[in-house]
Amino acid sequence: LSAMGEPSMDPTIAADSPAQQDSLFSMTDVFLISLITGLFTYWFFFRKKKEEVPELPKMQTVAAPVRDSSFIEKMKKTGRNIVVFYGSQTGTAEEFANRLAKDAHRYGLRGMAADPEEYDLSDLSRLSEIDKSLAVFCMATYGEGDPTDNAQDFYDWLQEADADLSGLRFAVFGLGNKTYEHFNAMGKYVDKRLEELGAQRIFELGLGDDDGNLEEDFITWREQFWPAVCEHFGVEATGEESSIRQYELVVHTDVNMNKVYTGEMGRLKSYENQKPPFDAKNPFLAQVTENRKLNEGGERHLMHLELDISNSKIRYESGDHVAVYPANDSSLVNQIGEILGTDLDTVMSLNNLDEESNKKHPFPCPTSYRTALTYYLDITNPPRTNVLYELAQYASDSGEQERLRKMASSAAEGKALYLSWVVEARRNILAILQDMPSLRPPIDHLCELLPRLQARYYSIASSSKVHPNSIHICAVTVEYETKTGRLNKGVATSWLRSKVPVQQGSSSLVPMYVRKSQFRLPFKPSTPVIMIGPGTGIAPFMGFIQERAWLKQQGKEVGETVLYYGCRHEREDYLYREELARFQKEGVLTQLNVAFSRDQAEKVYVQHLLKKNKENVWKLVNEGMAHIYVCGDARNMARDVQNTFYEIVSEFGSMSQPQAVDYVKKLMTKGRYSLDVWS
């Protein structure tokens, strides 16, 4: 177009022939038509865009729930100024968070407990927008210094974040266990990292030890934490120690039983209509296909179970854990119902009085008291002090009421009484009700107070290469007499023991899911492995050995496979004796070292056998680049084994003790020394 308007155009064009003029006209026509078409197209699309403008509000309404995931907006909306985040695997950290959030009202503050998985934690930088605001973190450490499942995203964010948290005030209470190598790693990391990002710590890091008395550690920290909060914000305790109900009871007299929960963890009727993927909120109902006693004698019952996972799409690897949801003993449930004079088949709901809370019920509702006490609530562990405090009001005898209040107090005498009368005597809620005849709380309040029954984790004792449709468990039933003469039984192991392999029926079904672990065989099959696992600690190594045998059958070069196993008596509790002998005969298990601790006057444990073979152990580790695996008791065995490795490294590596410790720690960092331990 600009070329046609150029002033330097050649004047001879105007005197061109008629044919040329006709041609020019047709070109002009084409141009005009193109221009009109272009204008029309532009107008058409412009008009469409104008029409789409009213659609924007719809887009905004779709985006609204994202804003709801902001804990800041929620706190502003509900008038809260304290948020207590919890990283919880077994429910204890969540319980502590709820208690701290509930405490806040006594100081004229309002708190809320929050699951970090449900919120965007980058909003922490905005917490200063709220007056007298504070973030508290109750963080449990799982496994070998790992975050709990629900705190994994928060942990990842903290590692990568370069946020400015200078306006944030915080405090951290960690939940750990001193028998583990990485004691309270998560609590320590959160406390340190928040300070690095500019946040202000208003009270010192609390370190709870589950190997000692976690409840007392928490109470001791909490009784100093609140005065520090009061001093920081210039507030005073209102003195209100009154019991405040969090849930209200609704009894359903005319209810459609198809809408009542009967033990499901998440979706209603999920056990009748199973849909993958299966996880903690949607467990798979696996059929028990085998349940046999492993030991030939002795008082204990050691068992091998096989769970059928056909058609579940569940995948697992050697070293993973299987989580099972157990059920409480029906006789304990019935006795609680009888003592409290309750019809356990009453269908009810406990509805949160805080309508803004994400947690609408303490467990799936509506359900019956029987279902709640059987599948949802922990009735076998000694109750924590907050439960005793809340229940005290229902003791008609003033002496019993005073005793309960004293045990729930922070006074030294009260703590000592709680430790001896509840913790050391292993009194569960039923035993407390039996030993305090005047204590008769309403069953709905008791259900509100009791913690959730948690899944139990077991190291998988099989390889998916050999058993793709089956998961094996090796466990010992827990049974002991308490100081009060009662017989206490482990919830999960007693329940698993009762599972009879049959073709049909719930008596053989186990709700389960798989939890991934870092306990893995080396990437190269040719890498030697040293496995140390006494007792049921042999479980993951049965999977490892099966897998190495399978790899060998595939024609792969498999490195030395060395096992150090221990049990009490050769003729009583030598687990998987035949299988291990077969693997050794086939050349898969290159060394089988077994310590029978009580078959001679002097006790012999796995660490003694390691010392006996120290030269070979050092050669495998130093020259063969072997991977070391330890599974079993954390309190004694794992520590003793680690100390033995320090000695071996020091002697054959010509190192000082600190250098040897550093050497073993580096093996851990490189993934060459792995632990799967419990206490």
TrEMBL record:
SUPFAM superfamilies xrefs: Ferredoxin reductase-like, C-terminal NADP-linked domain, Flavoproteins, Riboflavin synthase domain-like
Please indicate if the UniProt record lists Secreted as a keyword.
Answer: no
Keyword NAD part of the UniProt annotation: no
Q: Name one GO biological process term.
A: response to hormone
Needed cofactors:
FAD; FMN
Question: Membrane-spanning residues where?
Answer: 24-45
Domain FAD-binding FR-type: start-end pairs: 281-522
- Entries under InterPro entries matching the protein: CysJ-like_FAD-binding (IPR003097), FAD-bd_FR_type (IPR017927), Flavdoxin-like (IPR001094), Flavodoxin/NO_synth (IPR008254), Flavoprot_Pyr_Nucl_cyt_Rdtase (IPR001709), Flavoprotein-like_sf (IPR029039), FNR_nucleotide-bd (IPR039261), NADPH_Cyt_P450_Rdtase_alpha (IPR023173)
| Entry's Gene Ontology cellular component terms | cytosol
What the entry lists under Pfam families is as follows: FAD_binding_1 (PF00667), Flavodoxin_1 (PF00258), NAD_binding_1 (PF00175)
Q: Which UniProt keywords apply?
A: Endoplasmic reticulum, FAD, Flavoprotein, FMN, Membrane, NADP, Oxidoreductase, Transmembrane, Transmembrane helix
Q: What is this protein called?
A: NADPH--hemoprotein reductase
User: What GO annotations for molecular function exist for this entry?
Assistant: flavin adenine dinucleotide binding; FMN binding; NADPH-hemoprotein reductase activity
Question: Which intervals hold domain Flavodoxin-like?
Answer: 82-226
Q: What is its EC number?
A: 1.6.2.4
Q: Which organism is it from?
A: Quiscalus mexicanus
* Entry-linked PROSITE patterns: FAD_FR, FLAVODOXIN_LIKE
